[in-house]
Amino acid sequence: MTQKDSIFAEPLAQVSDFIFDQTVVEVFPDMINRSVPGYQSILQGIGQLTKRYAQPHSTLYDLGCSLGAATLAMRQQIADLDHVDIVGVDNSSAMIERCQLLLQGYRSPVPVSLRCEDVQHTEISNASVVTMNFTLQFVPPEQRYAVLEKIFSGLRPGGALLLSEKFRSADPVMDELLIDIHHAFKRANGYSELEIAQKRAAIENVMRIDTLATHQQRLRDIGFAHTQVWFQCYNFAAMIAVKAPTVGGA
Ligand code: GEK
Asked: Could you give the CA distance from residue 250 to residue 248 in angstroms, rounded to a whole number?
């Protein structure tokens, strides 16, 4: 079964930038469950929202799929739709290889194809649901608009983007509060001060987070007709952005 995450348990002479390699793959389910408040609730919500927004004869995307947790949550809800398939994308080959293996353990009429590539290069077309569950935060900030714009163009009318992100508060006092209570959450889940501090140092260059206002403004600027935060716990939030249905309902 899944191993316990102890990657940052011993003092490191120098903390390198975090990468999603084989070591991370081995502990990933434990790591994400103990680090992301509400992770399981968000997966459940992704399933429910997929059920509402998935359209027959369309493709669903899970961008930054890791070990396929969101892919599975989506797939469970669309088994009765005609001609749907899911594309899972991750730029870590270690993640994609393990994801492929894990998916083989589940039966479903819905085909899933996995691609090892940067989401910046993923072509999106005929999409009804696109999920980015804690992935956009790893895309360089200056590339985020282009990635989201490409998703918007590839969505069918009435389609939805499900975007979950760690965020920062624009108010420095409140930001400190959110960071503190998130660290308390990690401590309560068994991470030591050393683990929390070293993980923070490893991630700070690779994960540059936006405010919720930045996210929502960008989604509106791109053209999404409706946006809403549907889940928040501390500095973690899940949003939905919906592309307007065509007038006349086509
Ligand atoms: C889940 N969604 O369990 N292109 C493709 N993949 C990327 C990129 C990129 N540019 N940058 C990072 N990744 C999952 C959890 S984890 C979140 C997502 C976390 C991949 C990276 O390899 C990793 O697998 C994933 O995005 C982020 O529902 O660990 O905080």
From this structure: 6
Per-residue pLDDT tens for 41-78? 999 999 999 999 999 999 999 999 999 999 999 999 99
Sign of torsion, CA 16 140 120 39? positive
Q: What is the pLDDT of residues 2-46, one digit of tens each?
A: 799 888 787 887 878 878 889 889 889 999 999 999 999 999 999
Global pTM value: 0.95
Q: Domains along the chain? A: 1-237 (3.40.50.150)
Tokens 């348990």, located at residue? 9
CB 219 within 8 A of CB 241: yes
Q: Which alpha helices (H) appear in the chain, and where do they start and end?
A: 22-35, 39-53, 69-75, 93-103, 141-154, 172-188, 193-203, 212-222
Give the residues surrounding ligand 1 with Cβ less than 6 Å away: 20, 32, 64-66, 69-70, 89-92, 95, 118-120, 133-135, 138-139
